[in-house]
Amino acid sequence: MTDIFDNTILCNKCNTKMKKAKIVKDNFLFRAMICPKCSSKIIHPVDEQEYSRFINLKNKEFRVKMRLVGNSYAVSIPKEIVLFMREQEKIMDDMVKLCFEDIGKVSLNFKELGK
Q1: Are residue 80 and residue 115 in the same domain, yes or no?
Q2: Whole-prediction pTM
Q3: Structural domains of the chain, count
Q4: Residue 56 maps to a domain
Q5: E-assigned strands of 3-114?
Q6: Vertex 9, ends 21 and 22: CA angle to 5°?
Q7: Of 30, 52, 103, 109, which is most buried, counting CB atoms within 10 Å of its CB?
Q8: CA angle 37, 41, 45 (to 5 degrees)
Q9: CA angle, 44 as apex, 48 and 51 as ends, to 5°?
Q10: Is 102 strand, coil or helix?
């Protein structure tokens, strides 16, 4: 299947050929087309849809149980979060980074910073 951005796209404001670009918002990477003349932007529709899913998951609060497993505690991660992470990364390692950030706050990182 071909991607819509593989075709020549003309700016609807100045009729100039747009160039491919990448835009980052909230650590989310968007494919875009930008007009070199008037700076008009078009975001890839699939990326906009994925960003919308990301925002919906980000704003959703999950209530999960903490269980004692041997000498450690385990917290289950809701399936929809893991599935979204796998779709974004295509490959996800089994190891994750866990950090104690603040009183009452623990963070779980699925990828190393800078990768």
Answers
A1: yes
A2: 0.67
A3: 2
A4: no
A5: 19-25, 28-34, 41-43, 66-69, 72-75, 97-102, 105-109
A6: 10
A7: 30
A8: 150
A9: 20
A10: strand
pLDDT in tens, 65-81: 889 999 998 988 888 88
Tokens 């990768």 belong to 115
Q: How far apart are CA 41 and CA 33, in angstroms?
A: 6
Tell me, yes or no, whether 69 and 114 share the same domain.
yes
Contact 39, 18 (CB under 8 A): no
Residue type, 15: N
pLDDT digits (tens, 9 = 90+) for 23-62: 998 888 899 999 999 999 999 999 999 999 989 988 898 8
> Does residue 72 share a domain with residue 109?
yes
Range of the domain at 37: 1-51
Q: Is 22 inside a domain boundary?
A: yes
d(CA 113, CA 107): 13
**End-to-end alpha-carbon separation of the chain, Å?**
28
Helix, strand or coil for residue 90? coil
